Amino acid sequence: MRPPAFWDAPPDRPGVWARLLFPLGAAYAALTARRLKQGAARRLGVPVICVGNVNAGGTGKTPTVIALMQMLSDMGKSAHVVSRGYGGSLEGPVQVDPLRHRAEDVGDEPLLLAAFGPVWVAKDRARGAEAAQTAGADVIIMDDGLQNPGLAKDLSLIVVDATRGFGNGRCIPAGPLREPVSAAMCRADLVLSIGSDDAQDQFLRTSGHNITQPHVQGHLMPLQTGMDWEGLRCLAFAGIGHPEKFFRTLRDLGAEIVETRALEDHQPLTTALLKRLEKDAQTARAQLVTTEKDAVRLPQSYRMKVLTVPVRLVIPNAAILKQKVADLFD
pLDDT tier at 1 (50, 70, 90 boundaries)? Predict the structure, then answer.
């Protein structure tokens, strides 16, 4: 589902739809709070790092998980990721095998993350974490799950898109939030906002008063692959939370985007869809280009036809985050 435009309205100007839907948003928030109080969270014998968000939709969790996997590897720790496997058919717990599993089995994000280390999918995240611990994990990275009460967390990160901030400040369906920001802050240990310098400044102006935990800033940077994008005619397509971010990255690389196709988040790349995209690209004399996450959903026959733009999270001042991670092992 593409988020409605009124979700991005300023908190002091929510719009008529947000006001009309406010009672439903309040009910959603109450249900989330009730679910979080149910049962006792399972605690493991290894640290659990939760990478979550308050907003529905893409905020940059996947690049953050990759950055943490690499950080922990540099510390000599075996980090295993546990994911719900959104869009996948397997209940789990099962360890993702990129040679055997497809996105339809385990979800696109776990399949992408499996290129960087062990990844488990499980509808029951606590069982998935237990399987990872049994398999030798020194630390668990919980992909999403800030609102999941089944597993005790030792370090919780709220990841937020600096461009969108917390939107109009209201809960689904009146706004983009899974729960009130103040409630999430009470369970978080650090806030990571991702975006350009201008977006970070805007985020601080509009949402800085909401941040009650240590705050670090980061930005996504295209990985240098040797590809020369300057002047390349592209038909760009993306099925991520906010496709326009990808299109902007491609333009910043110097590509000439002749057409864009914003797909639904996690949308299956069917043969019919890909044939249509391929035909349109040929008509426009353009190269098909997509995101790293979308690429793992491509059938093998299209892997050589579509270029990808991998991005990595850069945190210029990561000392606070590194210290919090290191403290888990003291």
Answer: low
Which helix (H) or strand (E) segment holds residue 238: the answer is: strand 233-238
DSSP 8-state symbol, 93: -
What's the CA angle centered on 329, arms 327 and 112, to 5 degrees? 95
| Residues 54 and 142 both lie in one domain | yes
Q: Taking 90 as the threshold, does the pLDDT of residue 8 lie above it?
A: no
How confident is the model over 140-149, as a mean pLDDT?
92
Position 9 scores a pLDDT of: 84
CATH number assigned to the domain comprising residue 173: 3.40.50
Q: Where are the beta strands (DSSP E) in 62-196?
A: 79-83, 94-95, 119-121, 139-143, 155-161, 190-194
Residues 66 and 157 grouped into a single domain = yes
**Which residues neighbour 79 within 8 Å (Cβ) at sequence distance 6 or greater?**
68, 69, 72, 73, 117, 118, 137, 138, 139, 140, 141
Q: Are residues 147 and 57 in the same domain?
A: yes
How many domains is the chain partitioned into structurally?
Answer: 2
pLDDT digits (tens, 9 = 90+) for 80-112: 999 988 878 888 799 999 999 988 899 889 999
Same domain, 160 and 72: yes
Q: For residue 129, what pLDDT band results from cuts at 50, 70 and 90?
A: very high
According to DSSP, the residues that pair with 121 across neighbouring strands are 83, 94
Q: Looking at the structure, tell me whether residues 322 and 192 fall in a common domain.
A: yes
Same domain, 242 and 204: no
Written as six digits, the tokens of 308 are: 């990808």
Range of the domain at 144: 48-77+138-221+314-327
Question: Is the torsion defined by CA of 321, 57, 46, 152 positive or negative?
Answer: positive
pLDDT at 39 over 80: no
